[in-house]
Amino acid sequence: xxxxxxxxxxxxxxxxxxxxxxxxxxxxxxxxxxxxxxxxxxxxxxxxxxxxxxxxxxxxxxxxxxxxxxxxxxxxxxxxxxxxxxxxxxxxxxxxxxxxxxxxxxxxxxxxxxxxxxxxxxxxxxxxxxxxxxxxxxxxxxxxxxxxxxxxxxxxxxxxxxxxxxxxxxxxxxxxxxxxxxxxxxxxxxxxxxxxxxxxxxxxxxxxxxxxxxxxxxxxxxxxxxxxxxxxxx
Length: 234
Fold this sequence. Notes:
The protein is mostly helical. It has one domain. It contains 10 helices and no strands. The protein has helices spanning 11-20, 26-31, 38-47, 51-61, 64-78, 83-97, 101-114, 119-128, 148-160, 172-190. The longest helix has 19 residues, at 172-190. It is globular, with a radius of gyration of 17 Å.
């Protein structure tokens, strides 16, 4: 049993959230009845090895800023990504700490450089897709206001199956272990115990500002892990 902390998300809202998640399995929906807390619902889902559904539930239960921050934490923990992916992740973190339209729009170039098929690129594209400059309709995409959560879930799932060398992990138990840790990170974000910096970090006295260097949150240590069959989230 995973030791979850209590979430701030109201249990009564979870049933409606599940009904809005197109990719959630019917089995998972049957376990989320709106009477249990988010933490307990996630415990039940992971207890039935429905980690992918648990990730979907978390991504939709969190606010947009919380969900994106959670994905940033998961991607940092996974250690996935080359220089372009790391730059894309920094661009996303910059938007979280200062969620303005300028930083949203910067997500597209970051996503393009990292590759839309990478976890960091997917996450950067997610924040851009909700900006003023993004089209109201995209092929295969939800309308504005509903795009972030599914793309956050996809980024988290992608990061869980790719190791620090960029190779697909073949051991399903390793993937589930990584997802369980990611879910714990999400609960910490939900209850407010893991938050982003409220404003961009200020340069130290006597140093010159670095406008091209976005502020970065504390980076957790990267755990070396082996390499799982890709989960089917389509």
